[in-house]
Amino acid sequence: MRTVTFLQSGEVTWTSMSGKTEHRRYIPAGTELILRVVEVEGGYELWDGNWSIVVPVDLVRIAS
To answer: What is each CA distance from 56 to 7, 12, 18, 20, 25, in whole angstroms?
Structure first.
């Protein structure tokens, strides 16, 4: 688990592990969340345990 800081405000769509359920959530710039980070082509897949989002590299800062 790593600290993820969102660099821009906006709505993101979180997807459940099964992929059958989605919900939208507004995240303000500067929000820090503790998430599991998986690198994917062009960005990161961020998991909170049951839900995930895929974000471009330039929209978040990942603490090492």
So the answer is: 11, 12, 22, 23, 17
**Domains parsed from the chain with CATH numbers:** 2-62 (2.30.30)
Residue bearing tokens 């989002």: 53
Residue-wise pLDDT for 2-57, tens only, equals 999 999 999 999 999 888 999 999 999 999 999 999 999 989 999 998 999 999 99
Is this prediction's pTM over 0.85?
yes
* C-beta separation of 6 from 63 below 8 A: no
Round the CA-based radius of gyration of the chain to a whole number and report it: 11
Per DSSP, 17 falls in state T
